[in-house]
Amino acid sequence: LYMKIFYMDKKELKNLYKDNLNLIKQDLKKTLADIAKDMGISQNTISAYIRGERTVSLEFATQLCKTYGINLNWFATGEGEMYKKALSSDFTQKDIENIVKNVLKKENYK
Q1: Chain centre to alpha carbon of residue 20
Q2: CA 57 – CA 109 distance, rounded (Å)
Q3: From residue 16, how far is each of 21, 22, 37, 61, 76 by CA, in Å?
Q4: Nearby residues of 83 by Cβ (< 8 Å), 6 or more positions away
Q5: Helix axes 32-39 and 43-51, enclosed angle (nearest 10)
Q6: SS3 for the chain, per residue?
Q7: Given this model, what pLDDT does residue 80 score?
Q8: What is the CA radius of gyration of the chain?
Q9: pLDDT tens-digit profile of 29-60?
Q10: Mean pLDDT for all residues in the chain
Q11: Which residue has the higher pLDDT, 80 or 85?
Q12: Ramachandran region of residue 41, left (φ > 0), alpha (ψ -120 to 50) or beta?
């Protein structure tokens, strides 16, 4: 897990998160307005994430996963089940959050 996201470049991460946000939106049958309201952010911000114009922040990713019961491992890497169950690796949810935080910090994402 760590190695996969550590070596992804900024464009690959944006595309992964954009694709995963679209999958979440479609699977939950949510509109951009619904997600923005649930997350407490503007619809423009969600739109920018979904279009890949803006990189998802760690805070947003963590809150999104908590709000909708999404597996952070899946959101961060595209691997595993979309929804939380037992994680398929030895990493805890906190470990994954720390890994994502370190990768985003390395790439100077805000």
Answers
A1: 7
A2: 7
A3: 9, 10, 23, 12, 8
A4: 69, 70, 71
A5: 120
A6: CHHHHHCCCHHHHHHHHHHHHHHHHHHHCCCHHHHHHHHCCCHHHHHHHHHCCCCCCHHHHHHHHHHHCECHHHHHHCCCCCECCCCCCCCCHHHHHHHHHHHHHHCCCC
A7: 87
A8: 13
A9: 999 999 999 999 999 999 999 898 888 888 89
A10: 82
A11: 80
A12: beta
**110: Cβ–Cβ under 8 A, 6 or more apart, which residues?**
55, 57
User: Which two tokens mark 6?
Assistant: 């550590």
Q: Which amino acid is at 73?
A: N
- Work out the pLDDT band at 87, boundaries 50, 70, 90: very low
Given a cut of 60, whether residue 5 has pLDDT beyond it is no
Distance, CA of 102 to CA of 86 (rounded, Å)? 23
CB of 89 within 8 A of CB of 52?
no
Q: What percent of the chain has pLDDT over 90?
A: 43
